[in-house]
Amino acid sequence: MFSQAVSIVLGVHACFLPFLWCFKSAPFCPSTSVTVSSFINICNDFVASKKIPPSRVKVVDLGSGSGTVLFAAAKQGFHCIGYERNPWLVAWARAKTRTQGLSSLVRIYRRSLFSADLSDVDIVYFFAVPSMLSDLERKLDKDLPTSRQVLVVSNGFALPNWKYQQLKNGLYIYLRQPEETKVNTTE
Ligand SMILES: C[S@@+](CC[C@H](N)C(=O)[O-])C[C@H]1O[C@@H](n2cnc3c(N)ncnc32)[C@H](O)[C@@H]1O
């Protein structure tokens, strides 16, 4: 009787927990193939303008879901890091990383995107809900490196206070300049 009750409780959790995660903040909804290929073009333009190979560039997806964006970027040779708090999606994306032979280029952390290490990132991508964007903007202001140019791409929604450079296929594109450039331009 007791073991039956435990099985029922575990079964109910297994079925509904993924959906509970969804309702807590940005729900899982993978970027479309059009969005992903636009993002990859934007990343390729960024590295071409800087004349550096993708292998020297770190791409972070904040809320990486099933890894769609990470895999597309890794196939271009970028080093990719995902932060995702839904354990089912993390397990699924890690398994796909292995089956696609991308383990050397993709790492996925099961933790909040607000704890992401952005200290040496070059490109940041996110597909978040508007209610998260103020906090996300504060994190970017605080944690992005100040010594280099960083490309920030938001799918679907603009950051509340940043001024975007371009809007392409629903992607808001920001180029965060290094501190010394900002000082020079105001002189
Ligand atoms: C709209 S989906 C985007 C998935 C993926 N980036 C893509 O574009 O295909 C948003 C993802 O963010 C995750 N997420 C939401 N809040 C999060 C948080 N605080 N920390 C980590 N992941 C989070 C959700 O679980 C979901 O998988």
TrEMBL record:
GO terms for biological process: methylation; regulation of mitochondrial ATP synthesis coupled proton transport. Belongs to the ANT/ATPSC lysine N-methyltransferase family. InterPro entries: FAM173A/B (IPR026170), Methyltransf_11 (IPR013216), SAM-dependent_MTases_sf (IPR029063). Keywords: Methyltransferase, S-adenosyl-L-methionine, Signal, Transferase. SUPFAM superfamilies: S-adenosyl-L-methionine-dependent methyltransferases. It comes from the Eukaryota. Residues 60-140 form the Methyltransferase type domain. It comes from Galdieria partita. This is Methyltransferase type 11 domain-containing protein.
